[in-house]
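Hi team,

As requested, here is the filled-out complex form for the protoporphyrin IX containing FE run. I kept the field names the same as last time so the parser does not choke. Let me know if anything looks off before we queue the next batch.

— J.
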Amino acid sequence: MRLLPPIPDRLKPAPKRPGTAAPQKPLELVQEAGISAVDWIDERTSLSGGLRWLLFRKVPKGTNWFYTLGSATLFAFLSQAVTGVFLAMYYRPDVAGGAYESVRYITNYAFLGEFVRGMHKWGSSVMVILVFLHMARTFFFGAYKYPRELNWVIGVTLLILTMVMSFTGYLLPFDQRAYWATIVGVNINGTGPLIGPYLSDFLRAGPEFGATTLSRFYAIHMLLVPGLIAALVGAHLYLVAKLGTTAPPWLKAEHKEPELEAKAKA
Ligand code: HEM
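And here is what came back:
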């Protein structure tokens, strides 16, 4: 390749003075409106640096479809959050028939109510299945090992919280099945060692199963646990971006460290 001598600065075309460039045509303005808006925000927040750090990461060779299970779980959670907001617009945590009636209203009369309730109900099972599959992937690929132990621990907490969502949501329709199944569940909790009895007292919100139980389950289901899940998913993803993902276990290292090789042989 022929190397060209550098052009002296004074021969380079000078940038146009501000305000002297030809004004943009209306079509060009419309085409660049999105870019201009994003630039406007970025100039004031510098968010693009963080986004680039989060999204443009190197991924190990051999990354495959199993690595999408975490994002699929996240999508299921977001879908639950969105459908849950619409259900909360109609739901009433009232044990004297109001809860059951509000769920009946959602199913039979509210616009797209049956669809939204169906998505939330089936979505809960989808999320539980996905979270287990994602955990199995990270387990079988050895992703729980150093330096990702903390992310595994956060994951276990997320798994427990997902179960708490299922358990507390099951009571909300307040029909016969929800009522008796939850009594059984709370009693099973009570048989746990040490904290079991305290836990069942806390869930029942008093000595009897009643109005305060339903309110407590509702508050845990739509405020406490979703907030905790959102915060922990943030920490989980921060660690994924910081540490990178694990290479599949069947891949051999391409560049061997001579020092480690010698140590292994000794
Ligand atoms: C709400 C539940 C969860 C969400 C939304 C979630 C999301 C994610 C996402 C998006 C990733 C990166 C992509 C991937 O590897 O799939 C990831 C990685 C990871 N997750 Fe989860 N996760 C959840 C629960 C869990 C659970 C239950 C565990 C284990 C007990 C776990 C352990 C891990 C580990 C160790 C990694 C790092 C994977 C690697 O380095 O290859 N996560 N998670």
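Two things worth flagging: The mean pLDDT is 93. The pocket of protoporphyrin IX containing FE is lined by residues 67, 69-71, 73-74, 77, 131, 134-135, 138, 141, 143-144, 148, 151-152, 155-156, 158-159, 162, 229, 233, 236-237, 240, 245-246 (CB under 6 Å).

Thanks,
J.
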